[in-house]
Amino acid sequence: MTKKYEGIILLRPDRLTLTIRDDQQAILTQVKSGALRVGDETVANYLENMGAITTNLTGFLRVLKEYAVKKSDVVFYGDLDDLDSVSAQYVADQIEVRVGLKIQWLNKNQLLAQTLAQTWPRLKHELGDQQLTGYVLCVGLSTSTLAYFNQGQFATCWDIDLGKARINQLAENLRQTTATPSDIITDFISSKLEYLVPELSGQPAPVLLVQGVETLAQRYITAPDVLAPVDTASFKRRFRRILSSSDQYIIHQYDVDEQSVDWVLPSYLVVRQTMKLLKARKLYVTSLAQPDGLLHYHTDHTPVRDLVTTAADNMAVRYGIDVYHKDFVTKVAMQLFDALAPIHRLDRHYRMLLELACKIDDIGNFINPQGHYRHSAYILEANPLIGISDEDNHIIAEVARYHSSEAPEINQHHYLELSDRLRLPIAQLAAILRVADSLDDSRQQKITEIGLKLKDDRLLIKAKATDDLVLEKWAFLRKNQLFTQVYGLQPELIVKGAK
């Protein structure tokens, strides 16, 4: 039987990468393009690099043909970084016209989730500690991210305006006014990390894993390993050497090109200052990069899904949501979604989005219970969940907006801004969430068991209760109008037990 191979292409602001793997997910080969010049104003410079991008993609297609990989078995991802949506669409159209490949854009939260799902389990396995507590620092071009894992599980993460290309741009400006910009850059980095001090104070001296600093990985990792410890004294000596070395010395010693040589010192500065902030007792580095994590992106990758749902649960805790109410609503909403599958015909991805919305729909109460659903929406818009697309985050925010007393109206500006293909799914998910939420309006979980049955144009909800449901019945009647409008079914609540 002939083996089936698959190609994964990733476009980043500084280069393209092609990975070919077999049906057992073993990597057969990886090909990297030459350097793409990053922009001076925005790091993503895809428009000006279009000629080089299409030339490299044409070369990738030849490699794929040599491995008998069909175009239909090629997945092409692009790193949005700081690219705006209009430019992203233009780049996608140009690539499709020139080489016939369709690109799927990924935001930094999606790329980060893939990286964390790969790196942290490796570190736990390396140290033999499944309850490991520590941090992962992902150093990017325009921004960096610091993620915290508590007792083996993802807890939270922070975006830091400290990308290595961005810092280098600052350094270039400073070189015109000062002979020693490194001290000023150090202060700049410290200022960006300072806001984390209150949140991180009191934590035990942690383990720090660094990803995205290729020169550090080159020095400490020997293939086929992808992770290695870094002696902190050795790191400090290497940092001091880089601080006083010429570009030519760094290019020769670290095998970097003329563009990325300028990112070596900023990377080391970010790592050093983060170590100081965290008082890290152990330092590790990984060579795992974004293409490695993306091998599983388009499959049902359990570690990533777990990370996303954990992030939602942690957000609920941070904003003081009633855990018991959240769990009740989530359970009932999932039952409703499954029972209505023949009607709504939404896939499992929408089921996951509904589950996430159930977990965090009430976070707006943290600001004000009055109109909390609106507050929930703009909190989610400003603080998107890790691991899912911008569109998915937008869907969750809108479902949260409509989960209470406000219904989608054709004249509402936020409803008008939705694309046509999203309006119905959002209304379908919001209608389910409304019904589930109404069944625990007292926040006392009086209903212990629910059975569902579709009968003619009715949805019979048989509930077993331990107490009277006066408030729940009132809320049920008030909130089920959207459900009837969307599904064409009249929900009926039939109570067994206490009246």
TrEMBL record:
**SUPFAM superfamilies for the chain:** HD-domain/PDEase-like (SSF109604)
Q: Which domain of life is it from?
A: Bacteria
Under the heading InterPro entries, the entry gives: GppA/Ppx_hydrolase, Ppx_GppA_C
Query: What Pfam families does the record point to?
Result: Ppx-GppA_III
> A GO molecular-function term, please?
pyrophosphatase activity
- Domain Ppx/GppA phosphatase C-terminal residue range list: 311-464
Protein family (similarity comment) = Belongs to the GppA/Ppx family.
Q: What is this protein called?
A: Exopolyphosphatase
